[in-house]
Amino acid sequence: MALIRPEAARTLHRWREVILAGAIAVLGGWVAVQGGYLLPVIGLAIAALGLGLGIIGWRRLRFAGAATDPGVVQVIEGQITYMGPTEGGFAGLSTLQEIALLTRNGRRVWRLSQAEGETLYIPTAAAGTEALFDAFAGLPGLDSAALLAAVEGPAEMPRIVWRRRALRRLH
């Protein structure tokens, strides 16, 4: 017999980063009020760390919804892999040219266009899509706020979230 209901356990697991960051911020506040000259500085630094981690956790939470679509996403060493029941593939972060969010066959999907012309479609509600937030955040010039706005906004056809800029050649 479980001590916590399965629904509550899933909710706590989904919010784990934000909860841990909140605990770190509270610990920092507690240390800051202990008095002296050094403890308030250390406590405020710990609280700031907790606040920063909380913001990152909140963004990840907003990006990844419940896993209701088929397939699994993995991000390992700069390679995004999607394994679905009818399609799948992989895309290297270094070869990505464009990321777009669109509706395909009634589902919202990420369209990852690569330099070689290959395209990978990943459902936004596939298991493991939370790893895409960190992978996308490392791309040059990507705006995290635009990424979150695309996920939370209306399903426009298609919504380009990021496009690689061409490198200028010096002669």
Q: What characteristics describe this protein?
A:
171 residues, 25% strand, 5 helices, single chain, 3-stranded antiparallel sheet, 7 strands, 40% helix, alpha+beta, 2 domains, 4-stranded antiparallel sheet, PH-domain like
How are the strands of the largest sheet arranged? 6-5-4-7
Number of strands: 7
Helix/strand/pairing category? alpha+beta
CATH topology of the largest domain: PH-domain like
Number of spatially distinct domains: 2
Span of the ends, CA to CA:
72 Å
Q: Radius of gyration over alpha carbons?
A: 20 Å
Low-confidence stretches: none
The CATH architecture of the largest domain would be: Roll
How many helices does DSSP assign? 5
What does the main sheet amount to?
4 strands, antiparallel
N-to-C order of helices and strands: HHHEEEEEEHHE
Question: What is the share of helical residues?
Answer: 25-40%
Structure characterization notes:
It is a single chain. By secondary structure, the protein is an alpha+beta fold. The chain folds into 2 domains: 6-63; 72-163, PH-domain like, CATH 2.30.29. The chain contains 5 helices and 7 strands. The strands form 2 sheets. A 4-stranded antiparallel β-sheet has the order 6-5-4-7. It has a 3-stranded antiparallel β-sheet with strand order 1-2-3, covered by helices on one side. Strand 5 and strand 6 (119-123) form a beta hairpin. The chain is globular and about 60 Å long.
